[in-house]
């Protein structure tokens, strides 16, 4: 990838732009322990194995066809909605997005969170610089749906999109769709990402992307 090849930088939301994963993981663990009597360690492992997917899909993997799944998903989403707006952006997130715009990159958000929540969050912090906010709805989700939308709307090739995310499922989506990817350390480290993309490019802070563009 050359400096000229990337025109669009696409970010995951939770855990990449905002420091929300500890809060979301805690909520999920609470619900899994309550409903399935997992230990906290077991619940954490099951959540992390599926993180990066919309929670409704996580539960389909964790407990396929379980009758409690709709109740668990509803409670999780309620807990998320009550406190998501209190979660803070990472210290360098807004500066990085602003700098990318100054350097004439298109910038977007691709998330398993529903679009209205992301829009409200950004409005609350007076931040409206991104070109696209792509959230989850049935039939339109992070991965091929979002990548194809961006390519169509902005007349881009796959090689012109860079996706940055903090989960292994983000890495899988990028790999499966031939989209360049940078992993952000947090819940997962270099060796974890390497299981999906060998020698995966990794950053600790978002500002690190400028060394890789």
Topology, element by element:
Layout: E1 8-11, H1 21-36, H2 40-50, H3 55-62, H4 69-83, H5 93-102, E2 106-110, H6 115-124, E3 132-134, H7 144-154, E4 161-165, H8 168-176, E5 180-184, H9 190-194, E6 201-203
Parallel strand pairs: 1-2, 1-4, 2-3, 4-5, 5-6
Characteristic terms for this protein:
6 strands, 213 residues, Rossmann fold, 9 helices, six-stranded parallel sheet, alpha/beta
Beta-strand fraction estimate = 5-15%
Mean pLDDT: 94
Question: What is the molecular shape?
Answer: globular
| Number of DSSP-assigned strands | 6
CATH topology annotation of the largest domain: Rossmann fold
Q: Numbering strands along the chain, what is their spatial order in the largest sheet?
A: 3-2-1-4-5-6
Terminal-residue CA separation: 8 Å
CATH class of the largest domain: Alpha Beta
CATH superfamily of the largest domain: HAD superfamily/HAD-like
């Amino acid at each position: 990838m050359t400096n000229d090849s990337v025109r669009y930088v696409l970010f995951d939301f939770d855990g990449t732009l905002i420091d929300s994963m500890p809060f979301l993981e805690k909520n999920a663990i609470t619900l899994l322990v309550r409903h399935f009597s997992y230990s906290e360690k077991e619940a954490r492992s099951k959540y992390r194995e599926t993180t990066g997917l919309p929670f409704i899909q996580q539960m389909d993997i964790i407990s396929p066809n379980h009758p409690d799944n709709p109740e668990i998903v509803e409670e999780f989403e309620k807990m998320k909605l009550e406190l998501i707006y209190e979660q803070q952006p990472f210290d360098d997130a807004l500066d990085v997005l602003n700098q990318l715009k100054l350097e004439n990159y298109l910038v977007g958000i691709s998330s398993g969170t529903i679009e209205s929540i992301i829009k409200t969050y950004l409005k609350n912090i007076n931040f409206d610089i991104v070109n696209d906010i792509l959230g989850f709805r049935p039939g339109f989700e992070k991965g091929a749906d979002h990548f194809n939308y961006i390519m169509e709307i902005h007349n881009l090739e796959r090689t012109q999109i860079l996706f940055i995310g903090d989960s292994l499922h983000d890495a899988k989506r990028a790999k499966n769709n031939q989209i360049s990817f940078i992993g952000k350390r947090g819940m997962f480290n270099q060796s974890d990402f390497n299981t999906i993309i060998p020698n995966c490019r990794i950053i600790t802070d978002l500002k690190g992307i400028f060394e890789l563009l």
